[in-house]
Write a structure and sequence with these properties.
92 residues; alpha/beta; 3-stranded parallel beta sheet; two-stranded antiparallel sheet; 3 helices; 5 strands; 29% helix; globular; Aryl-alcohol dehydrogenase-like predicted oxidoreductase; NADP_OxRdtase_dom; oxidoreductase
């Protein structure tokens, strides 16, 4: 997998990243936890080192899922996330 510099950060990431919104609920029902972890780890094994998530995907579930899946490789990947959403605790 080719690598690219992420902006001017000095971080090297895979040219192809994995957007993880669909693993939580974004495009239909959530993927099972074990299946999602397997998918994320397979992406890493194939050279993906850039993963995109957001606190709104779940909320928080997607970031937690990525944390579980990437724990063994944490120093080898870059996780991009979006934050700053206001969640109504009554709606969660």
């Amino acid at each position: 997998m080719r690598k690219r510099e992420l902006g001017r950060s000095g971080l090297q990431v895979s040219a192809i990243g994995l957007g993880c919104m669909g693993l939580s609920y974004g495009y239909g029902p959530a993927t099972g936890v074990q299946e999602a972890i397997a998918l994320i780890r397979q992406a890493f094994e194939r050279g993906v080192t850039f993963f995109d998530t957001a606190e709104a995907y779940g909320p928080y579930k997607n970031e937690e899922l990525l944390g579980l899946a990437l724990a063994p490789f944490r120093d080898e990947v870059v996780v991009a996330t979006k934050f700053g959403f206001n969640f109504d605790a009554r709606a969660a």
